[in-house]
Write a structure and sequence with these properties.
CATH class of the largest domain: Alpha Beta
CATH superfamily of the largest domain: Metallo-dependent phosphatases
Number of helices: 6
Number of domains: 2
Strand order of the largest sheet: 4-5-8-9-11-10
Largest sheet: 6 strands, mixed
Shape: globular
Order of helices and strands: EHEHEHEEEEHEHEEEEEEEEEEEHEEEEE
Number of strands: 24
């Protein structure tokens, strides 16, 4: 690629941008090399690695990159918020990601903008100096990928301390999208990759909602394509959205938009684990991690991958340890299927009983609520526990992938195995289980005896 900036970026930028390129050259030449690309392949999808500093770059390395080194994938993509306003972390994070050993593409996010910029046009020049153009397209095998910039930077008004961003493609980029897609057959798979989701429920992420303001102009360009997927990050929760006429979509089928799991989870917050890495559970109760996008011609599927967990870890099952025999039918079982959607099917079986369906019921994840409650006892009103214990978890949001049911009536005394089975929108089945004990009376925990503090030698 070639970035044409005759005068370069402003010299006063805290994070350097592009150096002066001088006049436009007579030609811009680059080589092309033949490469065999199969119809069947997969890509690694990161959203929001978002390290504040190099210490958190190390979190990214230990939490997700180490397990991906040598992965069998065609390429990877970061869906924006590669940094967390500290653009010096681009270089150290790039060195970590390079160890994975596959080509890597990058989408610009709001925390990747140069906030010294006086306008939107120059706000991406530090990003461009590191990663190249802010929007472009490429093909791999039979699939057409479009890296999009839905960030509009609004510089601070006179007297204002900070600027802000809007989710917007803008007329110039939309014209480019139109021209690019004009060269792509309608029966070819197209994947749109961006940072801010096309749609987001008002008040779920911010008081005014976070969405792309000119998304309906994009809809007009893609809604007649039978094979089109879009994917974003930004919100720090996982969700499959199926965009319909309720949002102005005019296509014959709903459009599938994926809000991807984030590498940083809840912004690298929460208590550290035994390796010193924050548990950083996302605020919908799902673990932090990344996705695999799998392609086979015009077909695709998506795998949720929790950081440092087996690939089979696809859900959490919430039920109390002990249940009174007289109240089993009143006790809820709540299942968080991390990659679940409104098209998922979730069922439960207790012991040798029958499989029964659960109802889809978005609400606050109970495990996350308990985490937040325990933390609040330790933290009070502070945002940060302390330099050792890390940042406070953010406020929970209703999880779009919770299913609920009740235990069967009249379970006999003893220990029972709760089995959960889910079939996702791609027809794949996952299972998990949790043990519960039915008792006549609940055990009352005894107060811990006082222990005299002694120095550790």
């Amino acid at each position: 690629y070639y970035s044409h900036k005759p005068n370069g970026s402003p010299a006063y930028f805290k994070y350097p941008g592009l150096k002066p390129t001088g006049p436009l050259p007579a030609s811009v030449d680059f080589p092309l090399y033949p490469q065999k690309e199969p119809d069947k392949f997969r890509a690694v999808i990161f959203a929001d690695p978002q390290p504040r500093d190099n210490k958190e770059v190390e979190f990214v390395g230990h939490d997700v990159i180490e397990e991906l080194i040598g992965v069998d994938a065609a390429f990877g993509v970061s869906l924006g918020d590669i940094a967390f306003d500290n653009l010096n972390t681009f270089a150290t994070l790039n060195q970590k990601i390079a160890l994975i050993g596959i080509p890597w593409y990058n989408v610009i996010g709001n925390h990747d903008l140069n906030q010294d910029s006086p306008d939107d046009q120059r706000s991406d020049e530090t990003f461009e100096a590191t990663y190249g153009p802010n929007y472009y397209s490429f093909d791999y095998g039979p699939t057409h990928f479009m890296v999009l910039d839905d960030m509009k930077w609004v510089a601070p008004a006179p007297g204002a301390a900070k600027g802000f961003f809007l989710g917007e493609f803008g007329k110039t980029q939309l014209e480019w999208i139109k021209n690019d897609l004009a060269q792509i057959p309608r029966n070819q798979m197209v994947v749109l990759m961006m940072h801010v989701p096309l749609v987001d429920e008002e008040g779920k992420f911010s008081p005014t909602g976070n969405r792309v303001t000119d998304r309906r102009d994009l809809y007009r360009l893609i809604e007649k394509r039978p094979f089109c997927l879009s994917i974003s990050g930004h919100t720090h929760y996982q969700e499959h959205k199926f965009i319909s006429s309720a949002d102005g979509w005019e296509g014959p089928e709903k459009h599938h938009h994926v809000v991807n799991v984030t590498v940083s989870g809840s912004w690298w917050s929460g208590l550290p684990d035994e390796k010193g890495i924050p548990h950083t559970t996302m605020r919908d109760g799902a673990p932090n991690g990344y996705s695999f996008l799998n392609f086979d011609g015009n077909k695709y599927s998506i795998d949720f991958k929790a950081a440092r967990r087996p690939a089979e870890h696809q859900m959490n099952i919430y039920a109390p340890d002990e249940v009174l025999a007289a109240e089993t039918g009143k006790v809820e079982v709540v299942v968080n299927v991390f990659g679940g959607s409104e098209k998922s099917k979730v069922e439960m079986k207790v012991g040798a009983g029958e499989w029964t369906p659960l109802r889809h019921e978005p609400r606050i994840d109970p495990y996350y609520a308990l985490l937040k409650e325990r933390e609040t006892v330790m933290l009070g009103a502070k945002k940060r526990l302390d330099p050792v214990l890390g940042y406070a978890l953010p406020v929970a949001v209703p999880s779009a992938h919770l299913w609920v049911t009740n235990l069967p009536l009249n379970l006999p005394l003893g220990t029972h195995n709760i089995q959960i089975r889910t079939v996702d929108t791609f027809g794949r089945t996952y299972t998990d289980q949790r043990v519960v004990r039915v008792v006549e009376t609940l055990a009352v925990p005894k107060a811990a005896p006082a222990v005299e503090a002694k120095p550790v030698l």
